[in-house]
Amino acid sequence: MRLVVVVDNRAKEGLRKEWGWSAYIETHGHRVLFDAGASPSTLEFNAKRLGLDLSRLNFAVLSHHHGDHYGGFRYVGSVTGDLRVYSPPGELGYLREWGLNPVLVTSPLEVERGFWLTGPLSAGWILEQALAISTEEGLVVVVGCSHPGVHRLVRAARDVSGIDVFLVVGGFHMPSERVLDELAGMSRKICPAHCSGGRSVSYLRRKYPEKLCEVMAGSTLTFS
Ligand SMILES: [Fe+2]
């Protein structure tokens, strides 16, 4: 399996950065996009630069209905036909207008063999889900912005899959130290990105240096 960070607040040289998040995952015979960043042009530019052909996606996942996660789906719609986009409850009409096929997710589910969705967890009126993928090393959990709490999303991912967590990657939404401690108790690797905040990175670097992995647009994680 490989996971490529396509859009993030930070980017490797030659790639565009923006306030947003998107990750491309290839495994179990599927090509999947998790979130799409904020703008169609950034997603298109970075995907092409990274040699990723988004017209060949099998399905996509939207973590939550915020523009820095769904904006780039306009580009995905322009290069795919009727692509399934597993979405939490909310206004889905814009995805249809962009030529996509939004699939409403209301509870935890195994979406394809080896791919699970936590189903929507709530943070006030925001509903957000995470994607979990099985690897030989354990469960890889991809989160968007973690409004409901990254520890809650990871726990839900572990519960729905029944697999111990190996790694969590994505936006952690400036978690408290208590939340990071709980996360460290559940996951062997922790890769904060997007909206995680510099303070959580420095806390992890200080307290859990062996768990911390730093990623940005252009980073590739590979798993057996
Ligand atoms: Fe976000």
What's a quick, concise take on this entry?
By secondary structure, the protein is of the alpha/beta class.
> How far apart, in Å, are the first and last alpha carbons?
6 Å
Largest pleated sheet: 7 strands, mixed
The top-level CATH class is Alpha Beta
What fold name goes in the CATH topology slot? Answer: Metallo-beta-lactamase, Chain A
Biggest sheet strand order reads 6-5-4-3-2-1-15
Please explain how this structure is put together.
It is a single chain. Helix content is 26%, strand content 31%. The chain has helices spanning 40-49, 67-70, 73-79, 93-97, 150-161, 177-186, 198-207; strands spanning 2-7, 22-27, 30-34, 59-61, 84-87, 101-104, 109-112, 115-117, 121-123, 126-128, 131-135, 138-143, 165-171, 187-193, 220-222. The chain starts with a strand and ends with a strand. Helix 5 (150-161) runs parallel beside helix 6. It is α/β, with parallel strands linked by helices and 224 residues long. The protein has a single domain (2-222), classed as Ribonuclease Z/Hydroxyacylglutathione hydrolase-like (Metallo-beta-lactamase, Chain A, 4-Layer Sandwich). It binds fe (ii) ion. Fe (ii) ion is lined by residues 21, 66, 68-69, 145, 171, 194-195. Residues 21, 66, 68-69, 145, 171, 194-195 line the site of fe (ii) ion.
